[in-house]
Design goal:
Layout (H helix, E strand, L loop, with lengths): L2 E5 L2 E4 L4 E8 L7 E7 L6 E6 L6 E3 L7 E6 L4 E6 L8 E8 L14 E2 L3 E6 L1
Parallel strand pairs: 2-11
Antiparallel strand pairs: 1-3, 3-8, 4-5, 4-9, 5-6, 7-8, 9-10, 9-11
């Protein structure tokens, strides 16, 4: 059974940094594209970033380019999202997701099969 668990969220001030982690079990981690999504209250879920099997290809939504860095350590079955220069508009529940579609899923949430429960990130101004 696949399990996806996020950690690392918290309350920070604008301009500070956080690093989210996501571990996935029950699958061969480096076979899958991984992604980060977020959902703020009253808003639709938004794709933030994704990374390919070996980590050589990444993609970011425009609003986080230059501030967030996605990475993965396949030896630890762990995905990361380093979030720098955080803004109040980054406040959301952040979700880790796994895509087993066999093609580049981009940031379309329907292309991801397995999801974690989320970790809350709150950025105060």
């Amino acid at each position: 059974q696949v399990q996806v668990v996020e950690s690392g969220g918290g309350l920070v001030q604008a301009g500070e940094s956080l690093r989210l982690s996501c571990t996935a079990s029950g699958l061969t981690f480096d076979d899958y594209v991984m992604g980060w999504f977020r959902q703020a209250p009253g808003k639709e879920r938004e794709g933030v970033s994704c990374i390919n099997w070996k980590g050589g290809l990444t993609y970011y939504v425009d609003s986080v380019k230059g501030r967030f860095i996605i990475s993965r350590d396949n030896s630890k079955n762990t995905l990361y999202l380093q979030m720098n220069s955080l803004k109040p508009e980054d406040t959301a529940m952040y979700y880790c997701a796994v895509s087993s579609r066999g093609f580049w899923p981009g940031l379309r949430s329907s292309n991801y099969n397995y999801w974690g429960q989320g970790t809350q990130v709150t950025v105060s101004s």
